[in-house]
Write a structure and sequence with these properties.
six-stranded mixed β-sheet; single chain; alpha/beta; Rossmann fold; binds S-adenosylmethionine
Length: 432
């Protein structure tokens, strides 16, 4: 078997080595390690491989505590301790900014990190019923496969949700068409745990009773989805209120529908919002825009700190929710909201927002290239806080802000929103 010395980690958490001049991306290998590996994909310029044996181990290697590590596709970095994961993500961010944008932040912000386990308040659990294999499987997909991993617990889910997995398997097995329900979504908000069952056939009255009984026995709320998102309905308890999450630093409580976007890790989100506000420094008398505002996660803290805020978002349902959240928290007089497709932003549409002192931008993975291109090179907002879930698009957009629009990259840092995965959340400050 070939042997490699690992030089670094790539953005997917794989060890990177060069063997005879060819890059090899090795799952399960860490920087500084010497490993024996087997390739499962060979291309002319690179190979992808699994580590078979670690011949010299990194001091940051830990025994993965989860029994499903290696099979389950949910977490791929459990063999690296948490501080090593944070450092690796920091490096991915700095590399992206340098290689894509030729930028070095003036300051690296201290990483934001929280609990390593039990953090995942939202999840999509796959469901498979295979009578020949002994019944139902409920869990995450296996690595590189559409099979569902065999699991009875999951340590990144909140403990009370993890403990439901065996009961959910039994429930699926008892349903009259167990092979016609492919997915259960989980959304935890405050004291409420919502399970959303995707079902492909109408549910029989007995099945609905089973679901109601399960909800009462386990203290959860069932929603059902038979077809597209418009078919999502509350089943039981019929009077259940919406889940919500709190931002205690700002005295806020944000309501959400289970299908609406919320940050997955509430502990890290609280720190991220606090960091964003510390950088943005909203003040009375300022007019600030929160672009890609969702249900108001950053908009309402900006308003709470005294500024007037304009929240823009592509989803009409989320804009309505943000308006309701502004009312719910008594902030409606300082907030305005509008629906707009920000991927189609132009100089004219951005000018129509009116004069803005500062911006907060929190786009999806695709980034905000149309928006940053539409900003004026002269004048315009003097400060931009950019929250990103993709270092590559952050770097691409940062290049425009710095090289074309006259901003300085004052600082950047990461938030370990998804410990044990390679997913990277980051925050950057641009100022004129
Ligand atoms: C990463 S989420 C951030 C939401 C919010 N800032 C938060 O922290 O909860 C990105 C948001 O961008 C919205 N979005 C996606 N594509 C969009 C587009 N083309 N125009 C405007 N908003 C869009 C999504 O609906 C989502 O709410």
């Amino acid at each position: 078997m070939p042997i490699a010395q690992i030089e670094s980690l790539d953005h997917e958490g794989r060890g990177v080595a060069h063997v005879d001049g060819k890059a090899v991306f090795i799952e399960g290998a860490l920087p500084g390690e010497v490993v024996e590996y087997a390739s499962y994909r060979r291309k002319p310029s690179y190979e992808k491989a699994h580590a078979l044996r670690v011949l010299r181990a990194s001091s940051q290697r830990v025994a993965p505590p989860c029994p499903h590590f290696g099979t389950c596709g949910g977490c791929s970095m459990q063999h690296l301790n948490l501080s090593g994961q944070t450092a690796a993500k920091q490096r991915v961010l700095e590399d992206a900014l340098w290689h894509i944008a030729r930028l070095k932040p003036e300051q690296i912000f201290p990483p934001i990190a929280g609990a390593g386990w039990g953090y995942r308040l939202r999840a999509r659990l796959s469901v498979r019923y295979v009578a020949s294999k002994g019944g139902a499987l409920v869990g995450f997909r296996e690595k590189h496969s559409s099979y569902v991993a065999v699991m009875d617990s999951c340590a990144v889910l909140p403990p009370h949700v993890s403990a439901l997995i065996p009961a959910l398997k039994t429930l699926v097995e008892e349903m009259s068409q167990p092979d016609r329900m492919p997915q259960i979504e989980v959304a935890v908000g405050g004291a409420r745990t919502v399970l959303l069952l995707r079902h492909l056939e109408a549910l029989a009255p007995d099945d609905l009773d089973r679901l109601r009984h399960f909800a009462d026995a386990h203290g959860i709320i069932w929603y059902l989805q038979s077809k597209g998102p418009e078919t999502v309905t509350l089943l039981h308890p019929a009077t259940a209120a919406l889940p919500s999450y709190e931002l205690p630093d700002f005295g806020l409580d944000l309501l959400f529908h289970p299908t609406e976007f919320t940050q997955v890790n509430n502990g890290v989100n609280r720190m991220l919002v606090r960091r964003a506000m510390a950088l943005l420094k909203p003040q009375a008398g300022e007019r600030i825009a929160d672009l890609f505002c969702g249900l108001g996660n950053f908009t309402l803290p900006i308003a709470r700190l005294g500024a007037h805020v304009l929240g823009i978002e592509g989803s009409a349902a989320l804009v309505k929710r943000a308006q309701e959240n502004a009312m719910h928290n008594g902030l409606q007089t300082r907030c305005e909201f509008a629906v707009a497709n920000l991927f189609e932003a132009t100089g004219e549409s951005v000018a129509a927002f009116g004069t803005l002192d500062k911006l907060l931008i929190d786009p999806p993975r695709e980034g905000a290239i149309a928006l940053v291109n539409a900003l004026p090179a002269e004048g315009g907002p003097r400060c931009i806080v950019y929250v990103s879930c993709s270092p590559a698009t952050l770097a691409r957009d940062a290049a425009v802000l710095v090289h074309e629009k006259g901003y300085r990259l004052r600082g950047a840092g990461i938030a370990n929103m998804f410990p044990h995965t390679s997913h990277l959340e980051s925050i950057a400050l641009f100022e004129k």
